[in-house]
Amino acid sequence: MNAAELAAAVGDLLRDTRLIVVANREPYIHVRTSEPTRGIWNWLRGRRESSAIEWTRPASGLVTALDPVMRACGGTWIAHGSGSADRDAADARGFVKVPPDQPSYTLRRMWLTPEEEQGYYYGFANNALWPLCHIAYARPVFDEADWRQYVRVNQRFADAVIEEVGDRRAVVFVQDYHFALLPRLIKQARPDVTVCHFWHIPWPNREAFRVCPWGAEILHGLLGNDLLGFHVQYHCNNFLDTVDRGIESRVDYEHFAAWRGGRPTFVKPFPISIDPSLWQGPVRAGDQAAERKHIRALLGLKNEKIIFGVDRLDYTKGIPDRLHAFGRMLETHPRWRGRVSLVQVGAPSREHLASYQALLAAVESAVDAVNNRFKTDTWTPVIYRPVHHRPEEIAQMYRAADVCVVSSLHDGMNLVAKEFIASRADEQGVLMLSKFTGAARELDQAIQINPFAVDEFAEAMQGALEMAPAEQTRRMHALRERVASHTVFDWAASLLQASVRLESDR
Ligand code: G6P
């Protein structure tokens, strides 16, 4: 399904129903042009609006999927107004029509105080729930003051949603772990409104979840939903098991629903994807060759093969593990010395948090360890670029790579894997993919690896480098068929169709 097909399918279904999306990230952000590019801005694509302010769009699957739906149906997207010029671009109540160059729906910006942002976003969402759900050996930090801000911000967003609904029929589509309490708050105030939630990160097993001091409140909040989506069935099972053993409720495993207070929450997998049309490369062979040449020159490479990694700099992504495996491969397979470089691109993220600062230091020391040991006058084993790269540049790197490596210790889905596939119209290139990603369940023609097993990982890396072109084509062809037939528009359509069906059933 493409954007136009999604708009047609969902626009028809939602004709008399108001659609309200709630996500922490806004689909359009206004910033001052004089601002340096760092942190969250690393994930953004810029477009100039005036000499003083520019508006940008997050390069996220979520925005790609929901923006066309909102354009087709109208409605409101409620989000944290986090841009430095967001207030200048919005009216007194925080409303701004978007897209800025072709207004068709409303963005309602919520202004958070520094204390709210610290407690709700950095604190409870990213220092407690993020490590709790990923189980990547980072200890969750449960802080009473953070929790209070999380409760407060969820209530503030609920008030905004209820105001937006007014006296109409509505479907509210809540995004992610920032808003676990929101569904219940909406449902209590407006039982007639359909609430659907997509949880973009894993759901842990019951034993891991038990350590959360506010676990019951979180489960209770989520059971305010009519529909709750995860990327994979395994996370749905974990969630139902957590509910079953954690709070008073009735779990119906036959229909995948949890009942509480006389009403059900249906729990289903909806694997997210990308818009493959954004990752198509040059069609002419001459242009492809020129692109490769440009990327090699940019990276200072001669004839070395390229192993490529690109991630948000997050401790769940297994970046030090990837570097250790590369070092081990150079140690055990010396013939690759001087003949392959690992290019690691990373965007700094959530830098306020100590766990992210520690990760940056760990990546830097792993890069140094490999380079100090193996570097020569004419060859750099690891090329590390922890700076902003535009999506077009990333696409060029995907196409220049011989191997793309995704080594997450745990990941809800991982869209880098799908972007790499969508970029390879030449059906060449090898994808190495951690078996602990949601994507691994769909992409079975990738070389699946365990990032915790350094020797195995190193062997798989050298196997990937030696894979014959015909075998690469066979695998990439199958991978591309999967990504082309399950786009982010299919994801959005199936979630919204399921929600609207629930709404009309009531
Ligand atoms: C994860 C979350 C998203 C989030 C993204 C970037 O993928 O599931 O909700 O948008 O990370 O993180 P940030 O904290 O910068 O929004």
Features:
single chain, alpha/beta, Rossmann fold, six-stranded parallel sheet, globular, binds 6-O-phosphono-alpha-D-glucopyranose
Describe this structure in words.
The strands form three sheets. This protein has a ten-stranded mixed sheet with strand order 6-7-5-1-8-9-10-13-12-11, sandwiched between helices. It has a six-stranded parallel sheet with strand order 16-15-14-17-18-19, sandwiched between helices. It is globular and about 70 Å long. It is an alpha/beta fold and 506 residues long. The chain is built from 18 helices and 19 strands. Residues 35-50 have low confidence and may be disordered. α10 (285-299) crosses α13, α11 packs parallel to α12 (354-374) and α11 (319-332) crosses α16. A hairpin with a 4-residue loop joins β11 (250-252) and β12 (257-260). The protein binds 6-O-phosphono-alpha-D-glucopyranose.
Topology of helices and strands:
Elements: H1 3-13, E1 18-22, E2 29-32, E3 44-48, E4 53-58, H2 61-73, E5 76-80, H3 86-89, E6 95-98, E7 105-110, H4 114-134, H5 144-165, E8 170-175, H6 182-189, E9 194-198, H7 206-209, H8 215-222, E10 227-230, H9 233-246, E11 250-252, E12 257-260, E13 263-269, H10 285-299, E14 305-312, H11 319-332, E15 340-347, H12 354-374, E16 382-385, H13 391-400, E17 403-406, H14 416-423, E18 430-434, H15 439-442, E19 447-449, H16 454-465, H17 469-485, H18 488-505
Parallel strand pairs: 1-5, 1-8, 5-7, 8-9, 9-10, 10-13, 14-15, 14-17, 15-16, 17-18, 18-19
Antiparallel strand pairs: 2-4, 3-4, 6-7, 11-12, 12-13
Helix pairs in contact: 1-2, 1-18, 2-18, 4-5, 5-6, 10-13, 11-12, 11-16
Bound molecules: 6-O-phosphono-alpha-D-glucopyranose.
Residues 25, 40, 176, 200-201, 349-350 line the site of 6-O-phosphono-alpha-D-glucopyranose.
